[in-house]
Structures are given as C-alpha cells and as structure tokens.
Amino acid sequence: MRKLSTLLTALAVVALFAAAPVAAQNSYPPVGSDPVSGTSTSITTQEAALVLKYVGTTTAGIPTVQVSAGGDLQLEIAGVADATTGSPTLNGVFDLSTPAAAVDTVGELVNLINTTGSNWRAVLTSGLTGDATDNTFFTRSEIEVPTAGVRLFRDVDVSLFSSVAILPPLADQEFAFWSTGTGQVNTRVNKNAFANYQCFLQYASEKITSSGTVGAFTVNAVKNEYSATGVLTQTRRILWTPTGAATTVASNTPVGLTFVSAPGEFFVVRQATGTALTVTEVFGVGYMVKIGSR
Asked: In angstroms, rounded to a whole number, what is the distance separating the alpha carbons of residues 210 and 227?
C-alpha cells in the first residue's frame, strides 16, 4: 500500500509539472531576457494581422501589394497580377469582399498564400486562424513590398475586435523574425519562431468604446506551427478573461500576476465587441527567455 501511495504521489507531481503553465507571482525580468510588448490605439492602422513577403526570384520588376476598398487582396509583379496565386482563381487576386469558403478565414488565407505558387509567403502575427477575412483588412494603396515584408492591417471597426500580439521589437513588421536562420533574405517560414523561448506577460490592459455591448477581454497563449510547405496549425489557450459590459470598458490583468506561456507559445491580447467600435486601446508588456537553440 505504501509503495502504491508513493507511486501515485510521484505521478501527481509529474502531471503537475507536465501541464501547460498559466500564471505566477510577478517578478523582475531575469538577466538575459528579451522584452516583448504590443499596443494598439487605432481602429485602422496599428494592428498587423499578418506579414506578407515576396520570395520569388524574378528581378524583372517590383513586387507590390494592394488591398482594395472592398477588401480584395491583389499581388503583383512588375505591374502585372501574379497569375500563379489567388482565390478563387489564379489571377493574382484573393477575393476577400465575397470570400469563398476556402478563404473566408485568416488561417485559410495564410495557407493559400504559402501553398499556391512559390512567389509569396505569409505569417500570422496578432491574428487567430478562425478570424474572418470578409472585408476585414484595412484598405491600402498599392505599395512596394520591401525586403522586410509588408503588414496587412486589421480594420477593427469591421472585424469587431481589437487584437495585439505581444512580440519582440519589430517582429510584427519584419518577416525575418518568422523565417528560418537569420537576416531578411530567408524565404522559408520557420516551423515555430518561439520554439526555444518561453514568454511571460507581466501586464495587459484595454479600454474600449462601442455603440453596444462590449464582449470578452482575453489573454491568449498561442502556438503557431508551420509545415515545410507553410501550412499553419494553431493552438490557443485562454488564460484569463473578465466579464464584458456595455458601451465603455476599461480593465487590466491582476496586479502582481505574471502569465506564463508554455515553450513555443506567445501571447495575444484581444478585446471583442458585438457592434461598431469607436475607441480602442489595447496594451501588453512582458519578456521572453531563451530555453534552447533556434
């Protein structure tokens, strides 16, 4: 009986430590850690849902990206639509004003960009794979795609949520962080850019004004893993969420509490609403610790 009791106790301890962590008492970042943060104070041009990069080999012209007023995403090379990609047809245009079922979520869009043709790659930043694509990207005029990549911004007033990824500096702007190796010349998406890191969220807050009921404020631990061909699989854990309320809400995570990710996860702080947004302020800050070799 004593041996059985000892065995059960040991198994319980193993299970405790094997479970994905959630939170711990607040502490100062350890020496050698790197800062992570994210903020949004605009409903139009501050929330990068994904980063898009041209990885083709042609040097005959400049690659460009455009998001039309209806939400359609157009990819061009040298002023000509890239006919190796697109949806529902290969015409360089992803119809996101009336998206087909195969591209009506952000996860599906990323996967189609990565697997249709070989000229473009995309990675999710503050987006969740189930987010809708129907006219939810902010309109932007045709822009040359720099070496770092180009961001597609979420139109918060259409998506009806504000979402901020808590990332290292420039990670929401540059494809290089999400690619294999180092530097901006890499064209392959890293399986998991956070695989050898553990993230700690020390504080998050939101202030949101809506014409109707404000929904849940959530702290999410997100793991994005890409296959060799760039197909994204995402898992999400909701670590904390207070109750929503009406019209204007301001709240923050409990003082003195640090949220802890599992290795390979990063944090996405999100505030939803059921009706039009007029004001949104979402913020998060913390640090990440390297636990292995990238």
From this structure: 39
The pair of three-digit structure tokens given for residue 253, joined into one six-digit string: 């995570």
Q: Is the pLDDT of residue 275 over 50?
A: yes
How far is 265 from 197, CA to CA, in rounded Å?
8
Length of the chain (residues): 294
pLDDT, one tens digit per residue, over 87-110 is 999 999 999 999 999 999 999 999
Q: Residue 173: exposed, middle, or buried by beta-carbon count in 10 A (0-12, 13-18, 19+)? A: middle
pLDDT (mean) for 6-16: 36
Reading the block at residue 155, the tokens are 């139109």
Cα Rg for the chain, rounded, in angstroms?
A: 20
CA atoms within 13 A on the CB side of 165: 27
Strand partners, 251: 206
pLDDT band at 70 (very low <50, low <70, confident <90, very high): confident
The Cα 165–Cα 148 span in angstroms is 18
pTM (two decimals): 0.86
The answer to whether 137 and 67 are in contact (CB under 8 A) is: yes
* Rounded distance between C-alpha atoms, residue 37 and residue 168, angstroms: 7
Asked whether residue 185 carries a pLDDT value surpassing 60, the answer given is no
Q: Could you give the count of Cα atoms lying within 13 Å of 227 in the half-sphere of its Cβ?
A: 9
The H-assigned helical ranges of the chain are 2-18, 106-115, 156-159
Written as six digits, the tokens of 244 are: 């929503």
Integer angstrom CA distances of residue 213 from 43, 101, 209: 17, 29, 9
